């Protein structure tokens, strides 16, 4: 489609098999896999270097504007709902990762030393609640703060979150030295683990 450009952008597969795709700036698109057609849907906050996550209520949660705004997309109403334009410090920085926890909350890791936890509102049209989560750990010397940044992470079958963390943000930022941690959402603690 002419005019579409995507870089460091989010995408999510919808229940009907189509793909909702950010253009990484201020718009979002729908790609119909069957007809091979990409259509502009509308505007949204800046979604550059962020992640979207499907929630149990069918909505899609994301943190935009480099941590400055939290929104969720209501599929039934086909629009974005503002959760807050005053996000907690744990949401800042961009390079975000979002993980849906077994309890229905979203665990957020970005380029700051804190995490954030999002709880959906009572209905799809209601704003949710976004608060600071636990601070990310220090390195093994206790002198360097670890960050998520562009480091990878994955949700484990037990619901815990496996993270690569580094003093400079890791991943594409340069990465070394990196440390591996498992976040236990029930105890809100980080445990250092061996490299996979």
Structure description:
The chain has strands at residues 11-13, 19-22, 27-32, 37-43, 52-54, 60-64, 69-74, 79-84, 97-100, 106-109, 114-119, 129-135, 153-155, 161-165, 179-184, 189-193. With 196 residues, the chain is mainly beta. The relative contact order is 0.11. It has no helices and 16 strands. The mean pLDDT is 87. Strand 10 and strand 11 form a beta hairpin. It has a four-stranded antiparallel β-sheet with strand order 1-2-3-4, with no helix packed on it.
Elements, N to C (H/E): EEEEEEEEEEEEEEEE
CA radius of gyration is: 17 Å
Largest sheet: 4 strands, antiparallel
Large-scale geometry: globular
The average pLDDT is 87
- What structural class is derived from the secondary structure elements? mainly beta
Pick out its properties.
196 residues; mainly beta; four-stranded antiparallel β-sheet
